[in-house]
Design brief:
Blueprint: E1 23-34, E2 37-48, E3 52-56, H1 63-70, E4 78-83, E5 86-87, H2 92-100, E6 102-105, H3 117-127, H4 133-146, H5 162-174, E7 180-184, H6 192-207, E8 211-215, H7 219-225, E9 228-233, E10 236-241, H8 243-248, H9 253-262
Parallel strand pairs: 3-8, 3-9, 6-7, 7-8
Antiparallel strand pairs: 1-2, 1-4, 4-5, 9-10
Bound molecules: adenosine-5'-diphosphate and magnesium ion.
Length: 263
């Protein structure tokens, strides 16, 4: 295996330098069971710096479980996962530090309901990264501006639309300066008219060089934004292809069946 430098903090958003060869996430021989259910079946996947990997697959195929193992929200039974060359620790302070390098945005926005938008964004940097309130707030306002919500900073989450809340959730993740962002169906809970405002933010991040994994059912977005499409079914990676290959010429019956149902 290659040698990696000690983890440095991620570059400020918008200044990422694409360093095409460096593996940021390495998933090697990962297996996981829920009782008898083999939910992750020999998963091998390397995600390189600046890459946009879109995971597609039917409901129940293990997409969320895979995402959740990447920041150790779920344990694995076999195999290993490395973030920028460092194995995911079991628990404790190292886990908190490594987890900060892997931002995650869920279908449900998961904002702190009793904190203002600004406080939602400053909390992690102040608590986990021990930033001063001033620094955390300056950074939060820049991030909220980037996702188009700066004028809502003093409001509470319930006062915002779903699309706005999801953009705050993205800003909150970015505030930790993650090396990788995981998006698990980030637009599935949104009214249709709000889907694009969230996909646009994700697309801009991708263009700026953010390394990301996106689970989505938005096929137009997958086609446009993905460097690579991973198709999962029954806990396995069944296909791995460019979006052109995958959408125009799926190789497996399972992928053809999936595309036939949704396109
Ligand atoms: P996807 O995100 O592709 O829809 P999931 O990763 O959520 O799939 O789920 C994969 C399979 O694992 C499903 O059959 C689901 O019911 C099962 N599963 C998910 N979480 C748990 C859990 N905590 N305990 C038992 N089974 C689970
Ligand atoms: Mg899921």
């Amino acid at each position: 295996p290659e040698q990696h430098q000690a983890p440095e903090s991620a570059p400020a958003p918008g200044t990422a330098v694409v360093d095409g060869d460096r593996p940021l996430v390495e998933i090697n021989g990962v297996n996981k069971w829920y009782g008898d259910l083999h939910v992750l079946n020999d998963i091998n996947l390397t995600i390189r710096k600046g890459e946009v990997v879109v995971i597609l697959g039917p409901s129940g195929s293990g997409k969320s479980t895979l995402c959740r193992t990447i920041n150790r929200l779920e344990t694995i039974d076999e195999g290993e996962i490395l973030i920028d060359g460092v194995p995911l620790p079991e628990e404790g302070k190292q886990l908190a530090a490594l987890r900060a390098e892997v931002g995650m945005v869920f279908q449900s926005f998961n904002l702190f309901a009793h904190k203002s938008i600004k406080d939602n964004v400053t909390l992690g940097p102040m608590k986990v990264q021990k930033k001063s309130r001033k620094d955390a707030e300056d950074e939060a306002m820049k991030l909220l501006d980037r996702v188009g919500i700066a004028n809502q900073a003093e409001k509470m989450p319930a006062q915002l639309s779903g699309g706005q809340q999801q953009r705050v959730a993205i800003a909150r993740s970015l505030a930790m300066r993650p090396k990788v962002m995981l998006f698990d169906e980030p637009t599935s809970a949104l009214d249709p008219e709000m889907v694009n405002e969230v996909l646009d933010v994700i697309t801009t991040l991708a263009k700026e060089g953010m390394t990301m994994v996106v689970v989505t059912h938005e096929m137009g977005f997958a086609h446009r934004a993905a460097d690579r499409v991973i198709f999962m079914s029954d806990g396995e990676i069944v296909e791995e292809a460019t979006p052109e290959e995958f959408f125009n010429n799926p190789k497996s019956d399972r992928a053809r069946d999936f595309l036939g149902k949704i396109l």
